[in-house]
Predict the 3D structure of the following.
Amino acid sequence: MTGKQLHLNLFIYPDGHHEAAWRHPDSETDRILDITYYQELAQRAEAAKFDAVFFADGPSLAENIQYAARFRLEPITVMTAIVAATERIGVIGTASTTYTEPYNLARQLSSLDHLSKGRAGWNIVTTGAANAALNFGLDAHPLHRDRYARAEEYVEVITKLWDSWEDDAVVADRESGVFADVDKIHRVDHSGRFFKVRGPLNAPRSPQGRPVYVQAGSSEDGRAFAARWAEAIFTAHQTLGSAQEFYADIKQRAQAQGRDPRGLKVLPGISPFIASTAKEAEELHDRFNELTQPEYSLAQLNRLTGVDLSSYDLDGPFPREIIDTDEERSEGSRFQLVLDIVEREDPTLRQLCHRLAGARGHRVVTGTPDQVADTIEEWAEHGAADGFNVMPPWLPGGIEVFIEEVVPILRRRGLFRTEYTGRTLRDHLGLERPASQYAPTHAKESA
Amino acid sequence: MTGKQLHLNLFIYPDGHHEAAWRHPDSETDRILDITYYQELAQRAEAAKFDAVFFADGPSLAENIQYAARFRLEPITVMTAIVAATERIGVIGTASTTYTEPYNLARQLSSLDHLSKGRAGWNIVTTGAANAALNFGLDAHPLHRDRYARAEEYVEVITKLWDSWEDDAVVADRESGVFADVDKIHRVDHSGRFFKVRGPLNAPRSPQGRPVYVQAGSSEDGRAFAARWAEAIFTAHQTLGSAQEFYADIKQRAQAQGRDPRGLKVLPGISPFIASTAKEAEELHDRFNELTQPEYSLAQLNRLTGVDLSSYDLDGPFPREIIDTDEERSEGSRFQLVLDIVEREDPTLRQLCHRLAGARGHRVVTGTPDQVADTIEEWAEHGAADGFNVMPPWLPGGIEVFIEEVVPILRRRGLFRTEYTGRTLRDHLGLERPASQYAPTHAKESA
């Protein structure tokens, strides 16, 4: 026991992360448009002292809606409804740098940080789904490298906007009639390749200064971006070795940027099937996989790899010959992960589909509560994780069993808090509150 | 008594609508970033059976933040936090067609309508503040007519998106594995001058079908737009005659579009100073006006008229000679309203500032509860209003006294409900739920 404290997020997918969760009788598919369902999940995670709930997002309809509950309520609204029903837990939501305007997103996340008294996090994505472009006036999805170039400038702009009011800009002196000290409210006057934004933001600086910056890409561009900006990284790894390589690499990159690597938390995804015996856990996993539908699974595989495999025999070997190394496609990090599974396990196409059905490439663990806790501890103690994004295969039961059975073991091993020690998401994650880049003390420190 | 039922919205401005409200000891300026303040106001309005709470918005910082609390939390988040703390009252929020993308706004308002079980309304604006352009990559604010041309196409697109899932598109049949009937989910394939959007939306149709369409422009372009799209209009009038002219005109225009004019509710703004005697009410109003600051008032006047009056004598006559009739400026409806006050009342510059300090051109009434109720009844009974957007000069006291003193009189006169009869904002306003334009029954009816 090293005294290392893990961070745990509950990653809420409407009906659960397993692609067939909606067909399982224990999922509550009829509640996925009911906000109390999400509020209750967040309250449950808060009672268990999780750091945050986490939401994915994308501005287009999944192609395979016919076969699964692949839509969701919009995250800014869902997160707001959750903070209105909770006190301490953080909320991390995905928003795209490719398909939003920085001024608009800056306002909404600032407002969420105010509303929640400092519990907002932003999962920064460039949007992977190519069909999103068609909803925003474009004929084609921008290239991976161009999306990252825009993301880089986007985060620069939005950071300036969040810093544009110094913390003490509001005076509100009724007697003199001075409401704000305008010398402490700064235009950002940004002019770059993608954005031209004058600012300032039209609201005071928020409790956390800025929402927590979370990032989820593990490609080369993604790692470079994360090393500069991310305070937490959500990342997909199938093996301890892969996670260790990523952990060491991203911490080293952050250090090379002059950052304290402890200011960047690495949180792999983990999707647990938990039962009293290892065999029962396997059977539970199998029951979900039996509910999968090839039409859906192959579309999902196509989305992860860019390859259409629908004409191949599901019970034949995975047809390696059709994998090419198209540059644009292979820049996505999930593509390499799928190739690695094929190399390592030589699966049939159906087996590969089942391998990916649980959590789209994130690690699926099956076992007893002790076995799941062992995996978590192993990754945490061997330089692979500062915590985890927990991705329940189905909801709400899949998180209930984790909280009831696994969290107490982690606590007994001294790996997870029994009470919150702070009030903001930055507090929970052990991250500093950044000073405004426009504040004189900050400028002095940087000089 | 005609049995006509009025609609009442509470228009929440952070510290109240009077520009000096923040300086008054009864305003709660220290709570304007505290969400419980807004939740409590909405709960109070809900207890009084108001139709909705209403929020203004604009994506830029007011130029005169030095002298007043002219910032706000972002409306989508505030509305969501309010629906999480209420059961029945509607929420109407302003969002710009000039500075947002229809796909993004469609998602957020759809989500809000789902979360609230059908209580969302959208106040459609083209954004009047010229400095907003500089936060969105533009060198200048688009012209009034171009903003309205974009708004027209925007509403067409977003309506298609909200209609893109037929009401019964979700099947969720666990046995067969069919989640959605994709024949009932429609691409919108819009391609126009301003937007190219494929769709469909990535969420099912919301409880109200579409949020209620509210509109607040009374210019020529604004009236034409409202006649086509608006289901409620928020409008500024200083006199019964002006309000009657507007009411008759907009209803006639709606009818000319083939609409039932009862499907378009006219809701003038009213900002009441209420006291036990008429004299005390005047004194209350005076106390607020004494707290105004010329620097702020003149900037406000400049914003409404486009004219800089800061070099003129505040106690001299209003300098009519400098008003020109610049076409772009005079297309805004508030410009004409200010000119009318000058024509009618021949005020000094200071008097004009005080006339506008209460509610930026909306009607300010001072009087006893009976006198305020008389004004409301007069407008309602003489073809000037279907209801009112109540704009309390300060908060929370300014709405408290209205609810305690005026609402009971309206009830005794049979003008306002004592209980909600429906659950959605459409129910409260007496508006029909629109069918999806893609639904076969709808297509048949239209044929």
The domain at 7-278+362-446 of chain A is CATH 3.20.20.30 (TIM Barrel).
